[in-house]
Amino acid sequence: MLNRNIETFIACDSEYGGAKAALFGAPFDGTVSYRPGARFGPKAMRGESFGIETYSPYQRRDLLDLAVFDCGDLELPFGSAESALKLIEDRTARLLDDGKLPVMLGGEHLVTLGAFRAVYAKCPGARVLHFDAHADLRDDYLGDALSHAAVMRRVWELTGDGGIYQFGIRSGERAEFDFAAAHTNMTMFGFDGLERAAWELAGTPVYFTLDLDILDPSVLPGTGTPEPGGVSFRELLDAVLMLKGLNVVGLDICELSPHYDQSGASTAAACKILRELLLVML
Predict the structure, then answer these.
(1) List of residues 6+ apart from 248 with CB closer than 8 A
(2) Using the 8-state DSSP alphabet, how is residue 208 labeled?
(3) Residues 42-52: pLDDT tens digits?
(4) Could you report the per-residue pLDDT of 254-267, keeping only the tens digit for each?
(5) Of 266, 245, 23, 250, residue with least CA distance to 129
(6) Residue 169: which of 203, 193, 204 has the closest Cα?
């Protein structure tokens, strides 16, 4: 039995046994290619979550009506990506074995690989729905295959062709876009075709990963690699609401670097999106 974290995300204070979902933090940013700080994202989201309401007027549902357990943050070795991924994989596997929906707060985007390894072992044939500004399809970054810039390439090595659906992508090397044209389902700049993708994924186990830099930096400047030309908060919210009914077996929200936005608006946006995700998925 896991013990509830002392400081929880708002309303995520159920007992472990009766919880349908379990939230945990993966505070790792050891491979970031531009600005570090995503390791502080999970703590910031918990602390600032009490600045939003538990009730969603968008969905007319309330987090207080859900049963969500907050495990707290994993203790991850800063200097070893593979060791960190193994700890994330083990935690995700335990939650899946106990019948919980794992909800991970990153951390940089590489942490997705650890969680998805566990999901794919439990649910062979699982597909990935990926919202992001960046393709993350490099074979390596500066010679390192374990990088947040290469995380979707490593995920593709598990899913194979057609197993990844990408939306909002607006940055990457030419080779990444060439790779996507041959091996993934990529939609650039926004969410055109998301409704059709959701229809195609109906009934299939889905892992959902959200890199917050899909949002325009005018909305969310608190991220390590801001990329102009992103979507609005309302566009992202509408896309999240479109996921209702999918068989989501794991999810994460990554790449909040809170100290790059002293206003706190970026963290508030991340908290609100997480609230909506929990209400959509449960």
Answers:
(1) 101, 206, 207, 208, 281
(2) E
(3) 999 999 999 99
(4) 999 999 999 999 99
(5) 250
(6) 193
Question: What tens digit of pLDDT does each residue of 76-113 get?
Answer: 998 899 999 999 999 999 999 999 999 999 999 999 99
Alpha-carbon separation of residue 7 from 12, 13, 83, 106, 176 (angstroms): 10, 9, 26, 17, 40
Evaluate the CA torsion angle 182, 246, 124, 140 in order and state its sign: positive
Percent share of the chain, pLDDT over 90? 95
Radius of gyration of the chain from Cα atoms? 17
Contact 137, 156 (CB under 8 A): yes
Q: Residue 1: is its pLDDT beyond 90?
A: no
Where do the domains of the chain lie, and which CATH numbers do they carry?
21-281 (3.40.800.10)
Instruction: Give the three-state DSSP class for 169.
Output: strand
Q: Which helix (H) or strand (E) holds 8?
A: none
Give backbone dihedrals phi and psi of 101, rounded to 5 degrees, phi first: -80, 115
Alpha carbons within 13 angstroms on the beta-carbon side of residue 58 total: 22
CA dihedral of 177, 116, 273, 230, whole degrees rounded to 10: -10
